[in-house]
Design brief:
Blueprint: H1 5-17, H2 22-34, H3 36-65, H4 69-82, H5 88-100, H6 102-128, H7 133-141, H8 153-177
Length: 178
């Protein structure tokens, strides 16, 4: 049985995390070779992961080479800026700094992309929460393998969100201590 694109939407995250059996992994890889749309989704996700890794490395370089107080202020206010929680004068300062600083622009873009991806994932999971979509997909594939996913998709999404926030907070705290 071949995997459909709808099934790939679910399986892609398991594939990236290395949580698939060998047989299912092979089927996913075969689908990625044949389907340009799914391959593009896979490439985008991998690119975002690599951009995040590169961003962390760049932050370490920036703070070790130059502890620019304006950049620290930018990082401390980034979340509030994105959520439109800053006073007007602070918001204008953030805009000016972002326009004039290549690293700030890249960080703002990455933060928007992460936020967009998390919102899309949350909304998709929320809509699919009435049924355990992942289990149904794996049953449809009927590979004779027993999967026992114990967490509800909403719990998985919430845990992923919390972990992402904790990691980003740790990165910010770490960068501020340098």
């Amino acid at each position: 049985m071949e995997i459909t694109c709808a099934q790939m939407d679910v399986l892609l995250s398991f594939y990236i995390e290395g949580d698939l059996s060998k047989n299912l992994k092979v089927k996913v890889e075969e689908h990625l070779k044949k389907c340009p749309a799914c391959r593009e989704k896979y490439n985008i996700i991998n690119s975002m992961i690599q951009d995040l890794k590169t961003s962390v490395e760049e932050k370490e370089e920036i703070f070790s080479a130059n502890s620019n107080s304006q950049y620290r202020i930018f990082q401390n206010n980034l979340s509030a800026y994105i959520d439109n929680e800053l006073p007007a004068d602070e918001s204008i300062k953030m805009k000016k700094f972002t326009i004039n600083n290549k690293n700030a622009r890249k960080e703002l873009e990455n933060t928007y992309n992460i936020r967009k991806l998390m919102n899309e994932s949350f909304n998709k999971t929320r809509l699919d929460a009435k049924q355990d979509f992942s289990k149904n997909i794996l049953r449809q594939l009927n590979l004779g393998e027993d999967y026992s996913f114990t967490f509800h998709p909403i719990l998985k999404l919430a845990a992923t969100f919390v972990m992402t926030v904790l990691v980003l907070s740790a990165i910010i705290v770490f960068s501020l201590t340098l």
